[in-house]
Structures are given as C-alpha cells and as structure tokens.
C-alpha cells in the first residue's frame, strides 16, 4: 500500500501517502494501520518522523491513536468537525470583522433560503413553525437569551432545508458562534426581538408558498438591517470617551 518516502521531504510524504489512502477510500473507517515497526520499514524512515506524521494525521481528524497492547492507529470517518471547530474559533475570537461577516451572511443566506424554499417538505415547514412559536413564547416572556438560541436554531434549520451539506455546515458553523457579536454590539431588547420575530414570520410565509425570491429578499434585508444597527452601535461605542 505504501512506498518508500521521498528522502528530500520524508515527513510530508508520509503524511500525504497515508492521507491520500484514507481520503480515496483505500483505507476505510475502522481500519487499523500496520504496526509502527512495519510502517517504519515501508516508508524507510525513522520512528521519530513516523510518530510525528501520525500525530499530524490525528490532529487532522483522520486517525485515532489508541494506546496499549491492542492499540495502534485507527482510521476515522472523515467529518467536518475539525473544520467546524477552526471556523468557530475564528468567529469567536473576533478575527472576522463585523462587515465581512455580514457581507458573507447576506450573500450566502440569500442563496440558502432560496434553495430551502424550493426543496422544503411539509414536515420542514411544520418544524419552522414550531420553532417560531417557541421563539414567540420567549419573546412574550422577555427571555432574550433563549430567544437568541431559538433564532439560531431557525437559521440553522434553513440550512438543513437546503438539502446541501456544504450549506448546512456553513450555516451551523456561523450561527453557533455569532451570538458574541450580538452581545458586544447589539444586546436584544423588546424592540429588536419583535423586529427579528416579524422578519421570520415573513420568511416562513414565503417558505410556505415556495417563493424563494421573496424569502431571499427578506432574509438578506434582515441581515443587512441588523448589521447596520450593530455598526452604528459599534461606532457609538468607539466614540464614547468613557470607553477610551
């Protein structure tokens, strides 16, 4: 399965050969890699280089290294968790400027909700209506924290309705981690939450009749409007002498 590593780039070659075998399906999830001593001979490399390569593959989420007599390097199922975690950390760290995140959301959510409108099932619409009623209850009880969590769930579910796993991943990654922006720039209150609720009422109405164009226009306007509110709040905060 493996061949001797190129001696000019031993470490990278070991990583790439094993990675390619996993990605191509040659090594299926649950498969145990050959013993360390055998891998060392196959690649014609040192034990230290091999172990470092295996650690890199483990960090990528491609293998799991188990200790003990029955241990070894086990191939894992490829999933989006490591990527999702990296994107989440970037968003939560504030590495993305407010305007860049807003621009990304306006463009992508406009596309996602349009797909959702055309591909949604009656069960999907009922789930959105259930989430809306839940958000409405939190609004009436002035429970802003749980309202935001339900708002997050509605946005995420639109990604699920698109039936596109890439959009699902993006939507979930963003909405699981943007609440710090609301906390920093636009804490929820009665007026803002009511505006949010009314926007979703219109979005669900458009989804119900499969009007993707209308749903897209509403959600893009929704994101842009709230971004402008956050931008204004941020400007006021930066110009406040008490914050300098």
Feature tags:
mainly alpha; Arc Repressor Mutant, subunit A; 2 domains; Four Helix Bundle (Hemerythrin (Met), subunit A); elongated; 70% helix; 11 helices; 244 residues
Can you offer a commentary on this structure?
- By secondary structure, this protein is mainly alpha-helical.
- The protein folds into two domains: 10-75, Arc Repressor Mutant, subunit A (Orthogonal Bundle); 81-243, GntR ligand-binding domain-like (Four Helix Bundle (Hemerythrin (Met), subunit A), Up-down Bundle), CATH 1.20.120.530.
- The protein contains eleven helices and two strands; from the N terminus they run αααββαααααααα.
- It has helices spanning 10-23, 36-43, 47-59, 81-93, 98-119, 122-140, 144-161, 165-175, 179-185, 190-208, 212-239; strands at residues 63-66, 72-75.
- A two-stranded antiparallel sheet has the order 1-2.
- A hairpin with a 5-residue loop joins β1 (63-66) and β2 (72-75).
């Amino acid at each position: 399965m493996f061949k001797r590593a190129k001696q000019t780039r031993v470490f990278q070659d070991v990583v790439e050969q094993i990675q390619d075998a996993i990605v191509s399906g040659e090594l299926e999830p649950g498969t145990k890699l050959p013993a360390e001593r055998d891998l060392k001979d196959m690649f014609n490399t040192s034990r230290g280089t091999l172990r470092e390569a295996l650690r890199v593959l483990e960090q990528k989420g491609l293998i799991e290294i188990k200790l003990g007599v029955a241990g070894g390097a086990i191939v894992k199922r490829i999933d989006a968790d490591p990527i999702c975690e990296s994107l989440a950390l970037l968003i939560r760290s504030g590495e993305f400027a407010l305007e860049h995140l807003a621009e990304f959301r306006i463009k992508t959510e406009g596309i996602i909700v349009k797909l959702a409108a055309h591909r949604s099932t009656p069960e999907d619409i009922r789930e959105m209506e259930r989430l809306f009623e839940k958000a409405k209850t939190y609004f009436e009880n002035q429970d802003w924290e749980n309202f935001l969590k339900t708002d997050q769930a509605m946005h995420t579910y639109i990604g699920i309705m698109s039936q596109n796993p890439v959009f699902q991943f993006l939507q979930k990654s963003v909405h699981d981690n943007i609440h710090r922006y609301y906390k920093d720039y636009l804490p929820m209150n009665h007026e803002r939450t009511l505006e949010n609720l009314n926007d979703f009422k219109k979005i669900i109405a458009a989804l119900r009749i499969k009007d993707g164009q209308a749903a897209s226009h509403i959600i893009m306007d929704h994101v842009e409007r709230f971004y402008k509110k956050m931008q204004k709040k941020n400007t006021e905060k930066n110009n406040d002498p008490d914050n300098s």
